[in-house]
Specification:
GO molecular function: metallocarboxypeptidase activity; zinc ion binding
Strand order of the largest sheet: 14-15-17-16-18-21-19-20
Keywords: Carboxypeptidase, Glycoprotein, Hydrolase, Membrane, Metal-binding, Metalloprotease, Protease, Transmembrane, Transmembrane helix, Zinc
Helix content: 25-40%
Radius of gyration: 38 Å
Biased composition (Low complexity): 336-350
Protein name: Carboxypeptidase D
Structural class: alpha/beta
Number of helices: 33
Catalytic activity: Releases C-terminal Arg and Lys from polypeptides
C-alpha cells in the first residue's frame, strides 16, 4: 500500500506459490485452506510507488520516495473516515477507488494489510474523534475479536510476539503481546482497515512486518520463515465464529442483505447473494438475530461458539408484508441491537404465504439494431455475474448475431447443467419474439437473487437468448405489418427457415451467413431444448416440419410424445393459444387442439431449422407462433408480455425433464466424450459432452436406456421417469478386452505422465481441449495481427528476417533450397531452443504455397508466426506451447508461381505450377532415379525424409474443406480413423468448414459431411505431398482448403485469419496427444530405430534417445514394439481426446532361436555339427578308396569335352538364373517391407 514498504509484496507472492505447490503435492493444510476458502492475494496496491522505491531503503532517513502513489497521495490516508471532517477527494487516488469497488463486489470476511517500518499487529480503530497524535485507545465494537485475530498472527512470529521490535531509533518502543490498538499507537485518519470494518462485512488487521521497509533480497528467505506460520494461521481464522444461511421459510430461497445482529455487539453484518453469511466471533455464548425487510425477525439464543471452525446457525424467516413492486430496489435498513434483542423465535404456526412480486419489465418499445445493441450491452455490463454477451457471427450486412447468456457462471459449461436457447426474429418482419426475448433478459437479470423461480432457473440452467437471427430483414420491415413479407427474408432475399439441410429434400439455395453461423453455434454448445419464436399465428408447432411426399400430413418424429409434452407446456400457460382458434378474423377455419400442431400437418416446410436441430444435434426444438399480427404497434407489446411471460419461463423448465447423468470410464472415473445414450423403441440417440455428461428428454414412463462407447462394453438400465425433474442415471463402462495381449508384459508400463511432459503442461493441454479452451486462449492473448496485404517474395523474405531478428531466442530462419528461378524456400522454426535437437518434443510443420495461385495460406502462416512470437512470454498458454513444441513454418513452397499469380483471380490457374510448368503436388514420387523439381527436392530432402515430424498441415485454396491421405486411389487406407480425426479437429474449430457446404460457384449443391474428405475422393492424383509425407516421412499430413477463391482480395485476409486462427492453434494442441514414450533395454540404454507398429500396420521408428511419438484417434489401439535382438512387446493403449498417453517400453534380450530356447538350439546344433563332421569323414574315406580303384574311368569321363562344356554351361546358366532370381526376390521383399512400413 506504501510503495516503499516492499516486504509484504514479496511475501504475498511467495505465499501464493507455496499454497499452490502444497495443494498440488497433496499437503493436508494447503488443500484444506484452498478447498475451503476463497483466498484473494493482492501483492501490490501501489505499483507506481514501488517502481520509485529502492532496495535497501529502510526508511531511517524518513525518505518518502515511493511511499505515495504517482500523484503524491498516501493511500492509507485516503479512505472515507468515521471521524473525518469531510469526505475525501478520490479523484487522485484511483487505487483507492478500485479497492473500494473490489470490496463492494466481494463480501470479504477477513483481511490482512501488510506494511513495514516496525514489527507489530495493529487493529481498529486507527483514529479517534479527538485525533490526538497517540495514546488514545479507540475501541471498536468487536475489540475482543480484533485482539484475538491480531494475537493469532503475532504469537506465531518470532520477533513480533516478544513485543520489542528494537527498530533503529525506536529501541524503547514496546507492544504487549506484539499487538496494539491503531489509534493508541498513532492516529491515522482515512485508513483502510477502519473502512473495511465500518463499510463492509470485513474485519481487517494491519501487520507491520519488519523494521526495514525495503529489505535487501538476501533477507527475504529469513523474513519468509518469520512470517510463514503467521500468514497461514491468520488465514485459518476466517473460519471462526458462526456461519449459515438466511432463507425464506415458504420458498426456501436465500435472502440477500439480511442483517445478522449479535446481542451486546453494536456491529451488524449482512448476508450475501444466496443468503449466506460468516460472522467472526471469539469463543463464547451469544444470542443471534436475523432480520430483513418484509419478514419477521428470528433470534437464536444461547448459541455456543467454540474454538476452531464456525458454528452453523441457519435462519428461516417468515414473510410478513408485501414488497412493493414499484420500489424493488429499496434499501434494507440495518437492524439495531435494541430492535432485535428482545424478539422471539417465530414458529411454523405463524407461517404465512409469501407476497413476493417479481419485477416486471419497465419499457416496451420496438428496438432497432443500434437500440437493441445498447440494451444488450447495458445488461451485460450491469449484471456481469450472470450475463454474458457474445456474437455467433454476422448477417449479410455485417450486423452481429448477438446472444445473451444468462447463467450463474456465464461463459462456463457446468457439467450436469443443461443448456437451453431461445431464437427469435428469424423472419425479419416477425418481431414480437424479438421484443419478448429482450423483456425476458431484463426480467431474468432484475429478479435473480430475489425471485425464487428466476434464481432457481438461472442457477440450474445455462440459458442462451438470441433476440434476432435476421437483423437485416428487421431493418426493412415496418411497424403495423399484419401479413406482409417485406423484411421476411435476409438481405440476399432468402428465407432462412427454408435454408437448412433437409432430410427429405435437397435444398438448392446457397447457405446464408446467418444460417451457417447458427449451425456452427448449435454444434459448439450442447443444447438440450430450444424454441424458435415466429409470428403470423398463435400455436406451438413441433417436428417434423415436412415429409417425403411434400404434402400436408402428420410427420411423426421418434420423440413425438416428448414434443407434444413440451409444446403443451408452453401453450397451457397462454390462455388464447390454448383455446386453439388463433386468428378467427383472418383464418376462420383454422383450429389447433390445445394450441399445438405437428408442423407438416399444418403445412410443409422443407429446410426448416427445428428439424435440423433434432436430426443433427442433441437439441429438441419447437417453433412458436406468437400472434396473428407480425409487426404490431408498440403500444400492443405489454399485452404480448403479459400473455407469454409465464409460458416463456415454463418452457425453460422443460429442459429438466427426462433423464440426465454421466457416462464414466470404470478404470479411472473420467467422463467419456461422445458416448451414445439410446432408449429402447425410440430411434433417436443422444451423445455425451466433454465431461461425459448427458441429458435426454423423456415423458413419464419406464424405459430401457443403454450407454455405449467405442472400445467399451455397453451398459443397459431400466429407469422410471417421473414428472418432477430429471432422473439421475449414471453409467460406468468397462473397457473391452483391456488386458495386455499375448500374456502379461510387465516391462511395458502405461503411466500417467512420467515422461518429459509435466503435470502443468498436461493440464494446459486439457484446458485448451475443453469447451471454449481455445477461445479463452485467444481472448487472453495480449496481441494479435491483422494481415491486410499480400507480400511479394522480397517482402516475404524481409518479414521472415524481421521475425528472426526481433525474436532471436525462439526463431531460426533457414533456406531449404531454391526454386527454378533461384528464390529461397524459407523455413522458420519457432521453439524455445530452435537450434538444438530435442527429439522428445513433438514437431509440427505448416506448409503453404505449393500452388502459387493460392497464396492465402502463405499470409495465414506469416500471421501465425508473428502471432506466436508476439505472445511469447506474454501469454502463458502460448509460451508453454512454444516451449514444448518444435514448430516449422514453410510459408511459400512455390515462390516462382506466386510471383506471376494475380490478386482477385478466383479461378485462374496462372501461377499454379512452377516455372517448368510442373504441378508440384504431383512431383512427390517414390522414383528416386527420376528428375525432380528443385522445390520438391528441397522439402523432401530437408524436411519430409528427416522423419522427425509428428504432424503436417498444408494450406491450399479452391474450396472449403480438409482432405486426408491418400490422394492416390487405394483400396484401403490404414489408420484412416486417425487421419480423418486429425482433419476433423481442424474443420471443427473453423466457424463454417465443419458444416460441409463450401458453396463454391458451380458447386453450390456440394455437400461434404463434416467438411472432411479422403483426398482421393476430392481430387484423385499421384505424387502428392501428403501421400509422400505419410508413406516415406511417417508423418500424417492434412490439406486445408481455405476458401473457394484461389486469390481473394487482400481485404478478405483479416476475415480469413479470424476464421482459421483457432484451427491453426488447435493443431499445436493436437500434436501433443496420441501416444509417446521411450524404448530402452533392461540396462536403461535407449534403443533407436526400433519399430513401433500400430494396429498391426502403421509403423514409426524411435529417434535418438529411443523416443517415439505418434498421433492416434481417441480409443483403444494395439501397439507392438520390435527391435532386432530383443523380444517383441505387445500392449493395448487407450488414447484420450484431451491428453497424451505415455508408454515406457523396456526390451529383454531375445533368448529364443526359431521360437525355441537358446540353450536347446545350441545343444542340438552342436550335436548336429558333430554328426555332420563324422559322416563327412566316413564319406571321404570311402570315396578315396573308390577313386584309386577307378582312375581310368575318371579320365575317360573328362575326355568327353563337348558334352562336359554343355553341361557346365547349363549348370552355370541355371546357377546365375537362380542367383539373380534370389537377389531379385530379396530386393522385392525389402522394397515391399519399406513400402509397407512407410504407407502407414
Amino acid at each position: 500500500m506504501h510503495g516503499d514498504e516492499a516486504l509484504g509484496r514479496a511475501l504475498v507472492v511467495r505465499l501464493a506459490r507455496e499454497l499452490v505447490a502444497g495443494w498440488l503435492r497433496g499437503e493436508p493444510r494447503a488443500q484444506r485452506l484452498l478447498n475451503g476458502t476463497d483466498l484473494y492475494l493482492m501483492p501490490s496496491l501501489n505499483p507506481d510507488g514501488f517502481a520509485r522505491a529502492e532496495e535497501g531503503d529502510c526508511g531511517a532517513q524518513q525518505d518518502l520516495s515511493g511511499r505515495e502513489n504517482a500523484r503524491g497521495k498516501d493511500l492509507n490516508r485516503s479512505f472515507p473516515d468515521q471521524f473525518g471532517a469531510a469526505q475525501p477527494d478520490l479523484a487522485n487516488v484511483p487505487e483507492v477507488r478500485a479497492l473500494m469497488e473490489w470490496m463492494r463486489r466481494n463480501r470479504f470476511v477477513l483481511s490482512g494489510n501488510l506494511h513495514g517500518g516496525s514489527v507489530v499487529a495493529s487493529y481498529p480503530f486507527d483514529d479517534s474523534a479527538v485525533h490526538k497524535t497517540s495514546g488514545v485507545y479507540s475501541k471498536s465494537a468487536d475489540d475482543e475479536v480484533f485482539r484475538y485475530l491480531a494475537k493469532a498472527y503475532a504469537s506465531n512470529h518470532p520477533i513480533m510476539k516478544t513485543g520489542t521490535p528494537n527498530c533503529p531509533g525506536e529501541e524503547e518502543e514496546t507492544f504487549q503481546d506484539g499487538i496494539t490498538n491503531g489509534a493508541q499507537w498513532y492516529d491515522v485518519e482515512g485508513g483502510m482497515q477502519d473502512y473495511n470494518y465500518l463499510w463492509a462485512n470485513c474485519f481487517e488487521v494491519t501487520f507491520e512486518l519488519s523494521c526495514c521497509k525495503y529489505p535487501p533480497a538476501s533477507q527475504l528467505e529469513k523474513e519468509w520463515e518469520n512470517n510463514r506460520e503467521s500468514l497461514l494461521t491468520f488465514i485459518e481464522k476466517v473460519h471462526i465464529g458462526i456461519k449459515g444461511f438466511v432463507r425464506d421459510l415458504v420458498t426456501g430461497a436465500g435472502l440477500e442483505n439480511a442483517t445478522i445482529a449479535v446481542a451486546g455487539i453494536d456491529h451488524n453484518i449482512t448476508t450475501d447473494w444466496f443468503g449466506d453469511y460468516h460472522r467472526l466471533l471469539v469463543p463464547g455464548t451469544y444470542n443471534i438475530t436475523a432480520a430483513v425487510m418484509g419478514y419477521l425477525p428470528v433470534t437464536k439464543v444461547n448459541v455456543e461458539v467454540k474454538e476452531g471452525n464456525a458454528t452453523v446457525v441457519d435462519f428461516s424467516l417468515q414473510p410478513s408484508i408485501a414488497v412493493p413492486a414499484s420500489d424493488p430496489t429499496q434499501d434494507v435498513p440495518l437492524a439495531t441491537t435494541e430492535s432485535v434483542t428482545n424478539t422471539t423465535n417465530t414458529t411454523d404456526a405463524n407461517r404465512t404465504t409469501s407476497f413476493h412480486q417479481a419485477i416486471q419489465p419497465e419499457e416496451f418499445r420496438h428496438h432497432h439494431f443500434p437500440d437493441m445493441e445498447i440494451f444488450l450491452r447495458k445488461y451485460a455490463t450491469e449484471y456481469p455475474n450472470i450475463a454474458r454477451l457474445y456474437s455467433v457471427g454476422k448477417s449479410v450486412k455485417q450486423l452481429e448475431l448477438y446472444v445473451m447468456e444468462i447463467s450463474d457462471n456465464p461463459g462456463i459449461h457446468e457439467a450436469a447443467e443443461p443448456e437451453f436457447k431461445y431464437i427469435a426474429n428469424m423472419h425479419g418482419n416477425e418481431v414480437v419474439g424479438r421484443e419478448l426475448l429482450l423483456n425476458l433478459i431484463e426480467y431474468l437479470c432484475k429478479n435473480y437473487g430475489t425471485d425464487p423461480e428466476v434464481t432457481d432457473l438461472v442457477q440450474n440452467t445455462r440459458i442462451h437468448i438470441m433476440p434476432s437471427m435476421n437483423p437485416d430483414g428487421y431493418e426493412k420491415a415496418h411497424e403495423g405489418d399484419r401479413l406482409g413479407i417485406v423484411g421476411r427474408n435476409n438481405s440476399n432475399n432468402y428465407d432462412l427457415n427454408r435454408n437448412f439441410p433437409d432430410q427429405f429434400f435437397q435444398i438448392t439455395d446457397p447457405p446464408q451467413p446467418e444460417t451457417l453461423a447458427v449451425m456452427s453455434w448449435l454444434k459448439t454448445y450442447p443444447f438440450v431444448l430450444s424454441a424458435n419464436l415466429h409470428g403470423g399465428s398463435l400455436v406451438v408447432n413441433y417436428p417434423y416440419d415436412d415429409d417425403q411426399q411434400g404434402v400436408a400430413t402428420y410427420s411423426r418424429s421418434p420423440d413425438d410424445a416428448v414434443f407434444q409434452q413440451i409444446a403443451l407446456s408452453y401453450a397451457k400457460e397462454n390462455a388464447r393459444m390454448f383455446e386453439g382458434h388463433p386468428c378467427a378474423d383472418m383464418y376462420p377455419g383454422e383450429y389447433f387442439p390445445h394450441g399445438i400442431t405437428n408442423g407438416a400437418q399444418w403445412y410443409n416446410v422443407p429446410g426448416g431449422m427445428q428439424d435440423w436441430n433434432y436430426l443433427n444435434t442433441n437439441c429438441f426444438e419447437v417453433t412458436i407462433e406468437l400472434g396473428c399480427i407480425k409487426y404490431p404497434q408498440a403500444e400492443e407489446l405489454p399485452k404480448y408480455w403479459k400473455q407469454n411471460h409465464r409460458s416463456l419461463l415454463q418452457f425453460i423448465k422443460q429442459v429438466h425433464q427426462g433423464v440426465k447423468g454421466f457416462v464414466l470410464d470404470a478404470t479411472d472415473g473420467r467422463g467419456i466424450l461422445n458416448a451414445t445414450i439410446s432408449v429402447a423403441d425410440i430411434d433417436h440417440p443422444v451423445s455425451t459432452y466433454k465431461s461425459g455428461d448427458y441429458w435426454r428428454l423423456l415423458t413419464q414412463g419406464t424405459y430401457k436406456i443403454t450407454a455405449s462407447a467405442r472400445g467399451y462394453n455397453s451398459e443397459t438400465k431400466t429407469v422410471k421417469v417421473g414428472g418432477k425433474g430429471a432422473v439421475q442415471v449414471n453409467f460406468t463402462l468397462t473397457r473391452k478386452d483391456s488386458k495386455v495381449e499375448e500374456g502379461t508384459v510387465p516391462d511395458i508400463n502405461m503411466v500417467g505422465l512420467n515422461g518429459t511432459v509435466t503435470k502443468e503442461f498436461e493440464t494446459l493441454i486439457k484446458d485448451l481441449s475443453a469447451e471454449n479452451g481455445l477461445e479463452r486462449l485467444l481472448l487472453s492473448s495480449s496481441a494479435d495481427v491483422q494481415p491486410h496485404r499480400y507480400r511479394s517474395y522480397n517482402e516475404l523474405s524481409e518479414s521472415l528476417r524481421g521475425l528472426n531478428l526481433n525474436y532471436r531466442k525462439i526463431t531460426n530462419l533457414s533456406s531449404l533450397g531454391q526454386s527454378v528461378e533461384f528464390r529461397h524456400i524459407w523455413s522458420l522454426e519457432i521453439s524455445n531452443k530452435p537450434k538444438e535437437s530435442e527429439p522428445e518434443e513433438p514437431k509440427i510443420r505448416f506448409v503453404a504455397g505449393i500452388h502459387g495461385n493460392a497464396p492465402v495460406g502463405t499470409e495465414l502462416l506469416l500471421a501465425l508466426a508473428e502471432f506466436l512470437c508476439m505472445n511469447y512470454k506474454k501469454n502463458l498458454a502460448i509460451t508453454k506451447l512454444i516451449d514444448n513444441t518444435r514448430i516449422v513454418i514453410v510459408p511459400s513452397l512455390n515462390p516462382d508461381g506466386r510471383e506471376i499469380a494475380q490478386e482477385r483471380d478466383c479461378t485462374s490457374k496462372t501461377g499454379l505450377t512452377n516455372i517448368h510448368g510442373k504441378d508440384l503436388d504431383t512431383d512427390f514420387t517414390s522414383n528416386s532415379s527420376g528428375a525432380r523439381e528443385p522445390e520438391t527436392k528441397a522439402i523432401m530432402d530437408n524436411l519430409i525424409l528427416k522423419q522427425d515430424f509428428s504432424l503436417s498441415v498444408a494450406l491450399d485454396g479452391g474450396s472449403l474443406l480438409v482432405t486426408y491421405p491418400y490422394d492416390k486411389p487405394v483400396q484401403t487406407v490404414e489408420n484412416k480413423e486417425t487421419l480423418r480425426y486429425l482433419a476433423s479437429v481442424y474443420a471443427n474449430n473453423h466457424p463454417t468448414m465443419h458444416l460441409g457446404q463450401p458453396s463454391c460457384p458451380n458447386k453450390s449443391d456440394e455437400n461434404i459431411p463434416g467438411g472432411v474428405l479422403l483426398g482421393a475422393e476430392w481430387n484423385s492424383h499421384l505424387g502428392s505431398m501428403k501421400d509422400f509425407s505419410l508413406s516415406y516421412g511417417h508423418c500424417p499430413e492434412i490439406t486445408v482448403y481455405t476458401g473457394c477463391c484461389y486469390f481473394p482480395s487482400a481485404g478478405q485476409l483479416p476475415t480469413l485469419w479470424a476464421e482459421n486462427k483457432k484451427s491453426l492453434l488447435s493443431m499445436l494442441v493436437e500434436v501433443h496427444k496420441g501416444v509417446y514414450g521411450f524404448v530402452r533395454d533392461r540396462h536403461g540404454q535407449p534403443v533407436s530405430k526400433a519399430q513401433i507398429v500400430l494396429n498391426e500396420g502403421v509403423k514409426v521408428y524411435t529417434k535418438e534417445g529411443g523416443y517415439f511419438h505418434v498421433l492416434l484417434a481417441p480409443g483403444y489401439h494395439k501397439i507392438h514394439a520390435i527391435a532386432e535382438g530383443y523380444q517383441q512387446q505387445h500392449v493395448k493403449v487407450l488414447v484420450r481426446h484431451d491428453m497424451a498417453s505415455f508408454l515406457h517400453v523396456q526390451f529383454d534380450t531375445d533368448n529364443k532361436i526359431f521360437g525355441l530356447p537358446r540353450e536347446l538350439v545350441v545343444t542340438v546344433a552342436g550335436a548336429t555339427m558333430t554328426a555332420v563332421i563324422l559322416t563327412a569323414c566316413i564319406i571321404w574315406c570311402v570315396c578315396s578308396i573308390k577313386s584309386n580303384r577307378h582312375k581310368d574311368g575318371f579320365h575317360r569321363l573328362r575326355q568327353h569335352h563337348d558334352d562336359y562344356e554343355d553341361e557346365i554351361r547349363m549348370m552355370s546358366t541355371g546357377s546365375k538364373k537362380s542367383l539373380l532370381s534370389h537377389e531379385f526376390q530379396d530386393e522385392t521383399d525389402t522394397e515391399e517391407e519399406t513400402l509397407y512400413s512407410s504407407k502407414h
